[in-house]
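User: My instructor asked us to take a sequence, write out its structure as tokens, and then describe one feature of it. I'm not sure where to start. Here is the sequence I was given:
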Amino acid sequence: MTTTSRPNVTKKMRALPCNFWLKFWINQHSLVVVLLSVPVAFGLLLLVHFKRAVIDWPMALTLVVGLFTFAYTVQKQELEENKLFRELFGEFNRRYDELDPELNQILWEDDQKKALTPERKGTLNRYFNLCAEEFLYFRKGYIDRRVWDAWIKGMEIYCKNERIREFWAKELDTGAYYGFTLPCAAE
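Assistant: Let's start with the prediction itself. The structure tokens for your sequence are:
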């Protein structure tokens, strides 16, 4: 495998929206975000206190309630996204496990010059659709980058097969893959 395929994946990831990266950062550092919000809230409370010389209790209460609401929301969001990730991960792996024997037959077939049968093309289309769905959920921030990188490495195995690369090149013309391209598309 040449090194040209990895930079294309990286360029695509760099092109992902800022909220994608912010979401991942908050998800991975939610405890830090919550803990940092406590001193910020108390700092604001002190600022208000020293400016007014008398504590504005409704404002202080609003600030404290807002802080706890924020902390709860961040934690709840993280739990919900972890649950969704677990469901997606399980579903994607189940579908891949169903395709794997057929994909291996295509990959290791004795006569690699033989044209792909309609059944083999159907298998590859299901695999390409699976990869595109994984990419879609990755772009939306629901698939961890480490998992996505591992899946890309798996996709690169299929990219080494000339018949799969050629079929993928033809499939790209359909525009049916949510902007996803296999790592071998640049080759």
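For the description part of your assignment, you could build on this observation: DSSP finds seven helices and no strands in the chain. Try explaining in your own words what that tells you about the chain.
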